[in-house]
TrEMBL record:
Protein name per its UniProtKB record: Uncharacterized protein
Organism: Avena sativa (Oat)
């Protein structure tokens, strides 16, 4: 009887630990942005004038430019007429770079 109850207790503890990991993963994913984890770019932009810095040490650059910086992974077109303009939507680690000239 004692071995059976020990095995049952071990199974309950393992199930509880698994449930806690699932809950933590879900809370973490939703806390960083509506069910999506933030894809962090470890690169560094050459410059950024309109920088959005957060206290978590992450920043995004809201500059609208003719061509994205080479380190940008996700360059989105924001305007097509009369000239095409784009914006890098990556999230970067660190501090904002110097303003663009």
């Amino acid at each position: 009887m004692k071995i059976g109850s020990t095995v049952a207790l071990a199974v309950i503890v393992l199930l509880h630990a698994g449930l806690a990991m699932v809950i933590f993963a879900d809370v973490h994913a939703t806390s960083v942005g509506e069910g999506k984890a933030i894809d962090i770019n470890p690169g560094k932009l050459r410059c950024c004038t309109n920088c959005n810095f957060s206290s978590s040490g992450l920043y995004t650059c809201d500059d609208v430019v003719k061509k994205c910086d080479p380190v940008c992974r996700s360059c989105v077109v924001v305007k097509t007429y009369p000239l095409k303009e784009v914006k890098c939507t990556d999230t970067f680690i660190g501090i904002c770079d110097p303003p663009c000239k």
